[in-house]
Design brief:
This protein is mainly alpha-helical and 47 residues long. It has one domain. 81% of the residues lie in helices and 0% in strands.
Length: 47
Amino acid sequence: MKIIHTASVTEAVARLCQEANFNLGQDMLESFKKAFDEDTMFILAIG
């Protein structure tokens, strides 16, 4: 049986989470911008 150290798994998961959140694709960036614009318009409308 192979031994896997939990620190190695924790570091790998942390790195992958950071990469997933910092390196967004263009489609995700556009989705966030659209949602922000829609929310801002809604807030201004109910102002």
